[in-house]
Specification:
Layout (H helix, E strand, L loop, with lengths): L1 H6 L2 H16 L11 E2 L5 E2 L1 H13 L2 H9 L4 H8 L4 H11 L7 H21 L8
Antiparallel strand pairs: 1-2
Helix pairs in contact: 3-5, 3-6, 4-7
Length: 133
């Protein structure tokens, strides 16, 4: 009976109660993270694949495809080079390729500049040079 009396003593119960109340006031560490997007099919789509898809759509644009052919680079070669880009280059190209196909004059100018930037970057990545005579 000695151990029951010691654990059920009001001083011990108060100590345990105060200890647990004080411990409950200490905030727990929270962890947060971003979740990847999911398509309607349930397939996960990462931010990188979204950007590659955006650039792929821009590469399918008639003006971009024509400029790539003018420089001797096929769409397949350009698509193969997309997977070798680092995240910063991929983000830059994706943000610029979203603006292709604008309806107004400013959009047209931006589109042409984006196309030129895409072509130059892809040519640079494929180690090709442009000789102007």
């Amino acid at each position: 009976m000695g151990w029951k009396r010691m654990f059920l003593d009001h001083r011990t119960c108060r100590f345990v109660l105060i200890f647990f109340v004080l411990m409950s006031l200490i905030p727990s560490t929270g962890e947060a993270s971003l979740l990847e997007s999911r398509l309607s099919t349930g397939e996960q789509m990462s931010e990188r694949s979204e950007k590659i898809e955006s650039i792929r759509t821009a590469l399918e644009h008639k003006l971009v495809a024509q400029r790539l052919q003018d420089y001797g680079l096929s769409q397949e070669e350009a698509m193969a080079r997309l997977h070798t880009l680092d995240d910063e280059q991929l983000h830059q190209l994706a943000s610029l390729s979203d603006e292709i196909g604008g309806g107004n004059g400013v959009g047209l100018v931006i589109s042409v500049l984006v196309i030129i930037l895409l072509v130059v970057l892809i040519l640079k990545l494929s180690d090709r040079t442009i000789v102007i005579q």
